[in-house]
Amino acid sequence: MRGDTRSYAAARKERAADIDRWLTDLLRTACGTPYGQNGGTTRNVDERGALTGVALVAVGSLGRSELAPGSDLDLVLLHNGRDDVARIADRIWYPIWDSGVGLDHSVRTVDEAAKVAREDLKAVLGLIQARHVAGDPELTRSAREIVLAEWRADSRRRLGELRDATDKRAETSGELAFLLEPDLKDARGGIRDVQAMQAVAAAWVASAPGPRVREAYELLLDIRHGLHLVTARGADRLVLQEQDAVAGILGLLDAEALMRRLAEAARTIGHAFDATWRTVDRLLTGPTPRGRRPLADGVVEHGGEVVLARGVNPRKDPVLVLRAAAAAAEAGLPLAPATITALATQSPPLPVPWPDEARDALVALLGTGRAAVPVWEELDQAGVLVRLLPDWERVRHRPQRNPVHRYTVDRHLIEAAAGAASFTREVSRPDLLLISALLHDIGKGYPGDHSTVGAVVARDISARIGLPSADVDIVETVVRHHLLLPETATRRDLDDPVTISRVAEAVGSREVLELLAALAVADGNATGPAAWNSWKASLVADLVRRVRSALSGTPLRPAPSFSIEQASLARHGGGAVRINGGAVTVVAPDRAGLLWRAAGVLAAHRMVVRAASAASAGSTAMIEFSVIPEYGSPPDPATLEADLRLVLAGRLDIEQRLARRTRSMRPTRVPVAPPRVTLVDDASNTATVIEVRAHDRPGLLWRIGRAFGECGLDVRAARVETLGAEAVDVFYVVDRAGRPLTDEAQRVQVRDQVLAALR
C-alpha cells in the first residue's frame, strides 16, 4: 500500500518524546517551588516527595505518541487531593500557552476522572489510551485500570453509544475514500475510526486492528503530518489546493497518486471497521441462530455469515469464490473472514474463457443490486477481483477528482451495476446490462478517450468471461456509446431528423438501445445528483422514444421446434423422458399443464431450471430443460425420471410436495425488484405472447404455468431463460378455443393472476 511514500512515524515519536521531556521539567518545576516564591527560582527539594500524589497524563494524539506538527496537547493532571494542585496546574498550563501550542486540559482526582469517563464518551476514549508522562505513576495506573474495568463491564451500553457517535460523525463528514476534499480524522474510514476500533478491542469484544489496518492508519497519519507542514497549522481537511504540495512532501508523483493511496487506505479501514461492528452487533443483539442453512453448492449460512460447507476444498473448485459471493449477496449476509481468506488464498485461477457457471455467478452477484456492493468490497479487499479481472487494477481506487462524481472509478462501476439491477425487467438481456454497467468506465484506467479505449478493454474482458462473440459485440457497442444518449439529449436538437438518424445508426438495434437507456439512468444515479435529474431523464426518455421508432423492431426469437427423431420418443401413449446430465427432455401427448407440471417435479427435486423450451407439432409436445442442482449433488436420475413419468400419467400430486418444500424455506433477506408481466402485442398472429420477468426462485416456472392453467390457457410454445438471478420467460398462449386473447378483461385477469402467483 505504501510504495515509496515517505513516512513521518519516527518524527512523530521523536516530537512526542521531546514534548514529554518538556512537560516533565514543567511538572518538576511546578512541584518544586510555589509560583512566585523566592523570586521565581526553583527550591531544592526531594523530587520523589514533591511529585507524590500528582501525575501528568497524556491523552489524544500525544497519549498515542502520534503528535503531528500542528497537533494540540491533551493533558490531564491527576492528583490525590493535595491542596496545592491549582498552583501546580497554573505553573504547567501557562508556559504551554505562552509557547503558542494549543492545549486541552483538565485537573481531576482518580475518582473524578472515572466519573467523567462514565458520562462523557470523548473522555473515556481518551483515558482508555492514556499514557503516563511524569509524576506519580500509581495515579495513572489506578485511573486507567478503573476506567478500563468500567468500560468492559458496561460494554453493551458504551459500545452502543460509540456506534451512534461514529454513525453521526460519518453522516456529517462523509466517506473519506470518495470525498474531493476529505476530513482525514472525522470522515468514515478516517483516523477516528481506527481509534474507535481500538476502543472496541479494549472492551475485549473484537480483535485489535490488524497489520493492513495499522499500515493504512500510518499512511493517514503521514498525510495529516504532511498537511500540517504545508499549511503550518493543525488542519485536518485536505483541500484541493494543498493536495499537490502534500503529495510532494510525501514523495508521491502528484495529487492523483496521493488521493489514490488515500482512497485505498480509507477503504481498508472502512472494511475493517464494518467487520468490527458486525462483531459488536452480535454482542448487542445476542447470539445468532445455530445450525447451517444451504445457500449454494458448497456454501452455507452459519452464525449469520456465509461459510464453506464441511469438506469443501476451494483448491478443487475455481468457481467457488464467485458462487459463494453470489450466495452471500442473495442472502444479504457477509462472507465470514476465514472463508474469504481461504477462497482468496486457495482458489485456483479460473480457466479462460470462463465456464458458464462462473459467468452466471458473476451476473447473479451483480443482479442482487445494493446487496452486491459490500460483497464486491470483500472480494476487492481480499485481492480476488484483480485476479479474476486483471484490468480492474487500472481503475481500482482511481479518484475522479471531479465534483460531479461521488465515488472512485471502481466504486462507481459497482454502484452503476447495482443500480442497473433495478432495470433488469426493462431489457431483453439483463445479463449484458449488468456486465456493461460494470465495465462502462473501465477505460478510465488508460490514456485516451475512456469510451473508445474502454470498448476495447470491455471486449477483451467479455471474451475472457466467456460471452459468445455476438454478446461480446453488444457489450463493446454499449461501452463505446454509454454516453451517447445523455450527451445527445442535452446537447442536440431532438427535432432535427439528422440527430435521430445518427443515434439510430450508432445504436443499430432496439436491443442495444434499451441497454443504453437503462445504463444511462444507472450511470447518472451512480455518478451523483449533479449528473442525473428529472430534466435530463425526460430528455433521454424522449430521445429513446424517437430512436426506437426510427429503428426496425427486433422480433422475438421463434418458438423452438424438434426433429422427427426427437418426436419419436413419444412412441408410448404416456410419453417419454430422457435425462442426460443437465439436459432433461420430456415428450408427451400435448395437453394443458404439461410444461408447468414437469417444471414442478424438477423444483421438488431441488433442480434449478436455467433454460427451457417447449414446442408442439400436431398432437405431440416436447419440452427441453437445462437444469443444475440448487446445491449439493444432483438427484438420482432414475428417481427423477420415475416422478416425471408419474406426472405425465396424472398420478403424482406435485402441488402438495412443493407446498411442503416452500414451508421449509426461509424468506430472502434481500429486497428484489417486483416481478413484471407484459402482454406483447403484434408479436404473433396465432397466439398471445406473455413476457414474465422475475427474480429466480425454486418452483418459479411451476407457479407461472399453474397461473396460466387457472386462467384456462394453454402454452403453445415457451422460451425460458435464467440470466444470473433473473428469469426472463416468454410464453405463447391461447385460450381453450385455441385463439389469442383479445378480450381486455381477460388480458388483465391473466396479468393479475400471474403477478399474484409470483408474489
Automatic annotation (TrEMBL):
Cited PROSITE patterns: ACT (PS51671), HD (PS51831)
SUPFAM superfamilies assigned: ACT-like, HD-domain/PDEase-like, Nucleotidyltransferase, Nucleotidyltransferase substrate binding subunit/domain
Every ACT domain range: 583-661, 689-759
InterPro entries recorded: ACT-like_dom_sf, ACT_dom, HD/PDEase_dom, HD_domain, NT_sf, PII_UdlTrfase/GS_AdlTrfase, UTase/UR
Documented EC number(s): 2.7.7.59, 3.1.4.-
Function summary: Modifies, by uridylylation and deuridylylation, the PII regulatory proteins (GlnB and homologs), in response to the nitrogen status of the cell that GlnD senses through the glutamine level. Under low glutamine levels, catalyzes the conversion of the PII proteins and UTP to PII-UMP and PPi, while under higher glutamine levels, GlnD hydrolyzes PII-UMP to PII and UMP (deuridylylation). Thus, controls uridylylation state and activity of the PII proteins, and plays an important role in the regulation of nitrogen metabolism.
The protein's name: Bifunctional uridylyltransferase/uridylyl-removing enzyme
Organism: Streptosporangium subroseum
